[in-house]
Design a protein that fits this description.
The complex is a heterodimer of chains A (407) and B (256).
Chain A lengths: L56 H4 L12 E6 L5 E6 L14 H9 L2 E7 L9 E7 L4 E10 L4 E10 L2 E10 L4 E8 L6 E10 L4 E8 L4 E10 L5 E10 L4 E10 L5 E10 L5 E10 L7 E10 L5 E10 L6 E10 L2 H8 L5 H20 L2 H23 L9
Helix pairs in contact in A: 3-4, 4-5
Chain B lengths: L2 E13 L2 E14 L3 E5 L6 H9 L4 E10 L2 E2 L5 H6 L2 E4 L6 E5 H13 L5 H14 L10 E2 L5 H15 L3 E5 L7 H18 L2 E6 L12 E6 L2 E6 L1 H10 L14
Parallel strand pairs in B: 3-10, 3-11, 6-9, 9-10
Antiparallel strand pairs in B: 1-2, 1-4, 4-5, 7-8, 11-12
The structure holds adenosine-5'-diphosphate (ADP) and magnesium ion (MG).
Amino acid sequence: MTATTDLSTDHTRAVADGAHSHGVVPAGSRAERVTSFDLADIPVPSGREEEWRFSPVAKLQPLFAPELGAGGVLTTVVEAPEVKVEIVGRDDARLGTAGKPGDRTAVTAWNAFSEATVVTVPAEAVASDVTSIRVEGVSTDATAQHVLVHAEHHSEAVVVIDHRGDALLNQTVEVVVDDGAHLTLVSVQDWADGAVHASSHRSVVGRDAKLKHVVVTFGGDVVRVTPDAAFTAEGGDVEMVGLYFADTDQHQEHRLFVDHGVPRCKSRVTYKGALQGAGAHAVWVGDVLIQAKAEGTDTYELNRNLVLTDGARADSVPNLEIETGEIDGAGHASATGRFDDEQLFYLMARGIPEVDARRLVVRGFFAELIEEIGVDSVRDRLIDSIEAELEKSMSVITGTAPAQEGA
Amino acid sequence: MPTLEIRDLHVSVETKEGAKPILRGVDLTINSGETHAIMGPNGSGKSTLASALAGHPKYQVTSGTVTLDGEDVLAMTVDERARAGLFLAMQYPVEVPGVSVANFLRTAKTAIDGEAPALRTWGKEVKGAMENLRIDSTFAERSVNEGFSGGEKKRHEILQMELFKPRFAILDETDSGLDVDALRVVSEGVNRAKENTDVGVLLITHYTRILRYIKPDFVHVFVDGKIAEEGGPELAERLEEEGYDKYVGTGATMSA
Ligand SMILES: Nc1ncnc2c1ncn2[C@@H]1O[C@H](COP(=O)(O)OP(=O)(O)O)[C@@H](O)[C@H]1O
Ligand SMILES: [Mg+2]
C-alpha cells in the first residue's frame, strides 16, 4: 500500500515494483565508462558528469587532489584465528587486481596510499569468528586508505569494516573472492556528524564463488560508496545488500555496478533506505551490465526508499544494460514512497500509540533486509541504530528531546 | 450499561476540491449487547460513518457529538478510541509489510489492555481463535494483510475483534466479497464475540444475506448521509424484496 509518489525522485517516479522500464540510459553506457589507474585519465569533475550529478562535489573536493595524507584514520584489525593480516607497501603484487578505478575519488585514492592493509582468508580455511576492521576517524586531514580482503579458494569468512569518528577519507576496498570461496563483507558507515567519506569497493568473484556484500550507512555528512563487482569465471554469485538512514542535511550515495562479463553468474541487489529531515538526500544508482558473452545470466536489483518527513529527497536510478538475449532473468525495481498514513491509521485503530506504530512500520520496512544480512553482531547493531534514528524523528512528532546521540 | 451515542453527526471528507459534506445529521444509540444493522446503497456514507467514528484524519466532523459512556469520543485520538473500547473492522484492511500478525496482535492487545497478555494463555487463545476462524497457523508469521485474499483479510479483522474484546465493534461490509462458507465462518466469529463479551455491534452491510447469520435487533436504512428509516429485523426482509429504490430518488447515488 506504500504509494509511489513523485516527491523528488529521479527516474523512479511512479515506477512500481516489477515494472521493467529501462529508465533513461545515461550518456555513455557502463561498458564505455573510462577506468584507469592513471590520474591523468580521470580529471577532476565539474559536478555535471553522470557519475557526479547528484553529489555535493564541493564537499568532496579535497579528495579529488592527487596528494592525500594517511594520518586521518586509525585502523585496528581484530581477526579470526584462521585469518592473516598484513601491512604491505603499495608495490605489493596482490594490490590492484580487483579492477581499475572508475571515477576521480577512486583514482586519487589509488594513487595516494603508501601502505595497505591486507586481510587474507587462507585456502580452505573456515573462519570461526568475524574479522573486524575498525576505522576510527581521528582528524579531518584528507586521508587515503587502501584495504584488500582476499578470500582464497574454498575459504569462508565474514569481514566487517566499521567506520566511526570524524574523518575526511578517500578509501579503496579491494575484494578478491577466489574459486569456491564464500565471503561476506560488511561495511558500516557509522560516522559522526561532519565526516566525509568516499569509498570505491572493487570486487572480483571467481568460479562458483559467492560474495555477499553489505553496505550500511547511518552517519557522516557525505558518504559516497561505489561498489563494483565483476565475475572472472562461471558460477559466481554476488549478493549486494544495502541499508541506509539519511537524516537532516546528510548525503548518502550508493552507486553500484555489477559487470556480468562471463556466462552463468548470478547477482542480486537489494538496497533500502529511510530518509527524514530537511536536506536529507539519498542517491542510489544501480548499474548492471550483461555483456554479449554473459549468457545464462540471472540478475535482479531493487531499491526502495521510505520518506518519513517533508524536505527529504531520494534519487533512485536503476540501469540495466543487456547485450545478449540468452539470459535466465534480468529485472529491476525501484520505488520511493512516503510514509503511509493508512498503515499508521490501521495500527492506531488497534490501540497502538502513534510513536509505536511508526516504529513498527519502519522496522517492518527494513525487516526482511536485516534478516538477509545474516550476521548476528551486525544485525543487533543495525536494529539499535534504526531505533536511535527513529528516536530523532519521534522527537519531532512528540516534541520531546531525542535520546543522547554518540558524538 | 455501556452506550455509544451518536448525535446529529455531520462529517465532511477532504478532497482536492475542498471539504465535501457526506454525513448530514446521523443519530444513533447503541447499547452493549445490541446489534444494529446499517444498510444502504453504495456511496450513501456508511464507510464515512465508520471512519469518522474511528477517527480517520481524512474525515472532519463539522458538528454533532459522539460519546461512549458519556466520554467525548471526538476529543480522543485514534488510538485512544481503540483503547476506550471501539473497534473498526475495515472494509479494506491495510497491508503492513514486515510486521508479523503475531507481533501485531500482541502489540495491539498490550496497548488496549495496558499490560502485556500472559504469555502462555495468550498463545493458546490466539491459536484457538485462528482455528475457529479457519485461519491457517502459518498466518501468524506472515506480514499483516500482505498478500491476504479478500476473505482472509476479513477473517483477520474478526480475529482481532475476538481477541481484543472491544465494547463496541463497527463492522464495515465484513460480508462483502465472501463466499458462503467464509460468510458463515466470519459470522460465527462475530456471534462468539457477542456471546462472550456482550459487545455492541454496528453491522454495516449492503446486502441482507449476512443478517441470516447475525441477527440484528435493529435495522437502519442509510441514505444520502443519514438514517432514512428504522425498524426491527422485518425491515431487512422488506429491503431484501424491495431494494433501496424507494429511498434512492433525488440526491442519493447508486454507484456500482
Ligand atoms: N476519501 C474520499 N475522497 C473523496 N470522496 C469520498 C472519500 N470517501 C468517501 N467519499 C465520497 O463520500 C460518499 C460516501 O462514501 P462512503 O462513505 O464510502 O459510502 P458507502 O460506504 O456507503 O459506500 C461517496 O460519494 C464517496 O465518493
Ligand atoms: Mg463502504
